[in-house]
Design a protein that fits this description.
This protein has two helices and five strands; from the N terminus they run H-E-E-E-E-E-H. The protein has one domain. It is globular and about 35 Å long. Strand 4 and strand 5 form a beta hairpin.
Length: 109
């Protein structure tokens, strides 16, 4: 493992620890390209036709930016924020993986 990969994993592992403390489930997926952290909200399960599984999940990657700083990125590629600002990242991820007030899984398309 090269130095960049080790730093990337360290950032994702630190994020995983913060998210687990907040009640989310994390699973590192470091074998693919790009490596990522899979995050789910275990409190929300179900789906169309009675399927079981997490309704809300996200994949976060860590990449070095053009200025050399490490950034966390959403699955769609937008930056989430600096990898060193874990409190900010945890707050944003919890917001995204929380249900919309007044919307239940029965209302989902």
């Amino acid at each position: 493992m090269d130095g960049g990969t080790a730093v990337m994993r360290a950032h994702l592992d630190a994020l995983a620890a913060g998210l687990r403390q907040s009640g989310l489930t994390t699973r590192p997926e470091y074998g693919g390209e790009p490596p990522y952290l899979h995050i789910t909200n275990p409190g929300l399960v179900g789906g169309p036709g009675g399927a079981r599984g997490p309704l809300l999940n996200e994949r976060i990657t860590a990449r070095r930016g053009p200025d050399g700083r490490w950034l966390l990125h959403w699955s769609w590629g937008d930056p989430l924020g600096p990898a060193t600002d874990l409190a900010h990242a945890v707050t944003k991820i919890i917001h995204v993986l929380s249900p919309t007030p007044g919307l239940s899984s029965r209302d989902a398309p």
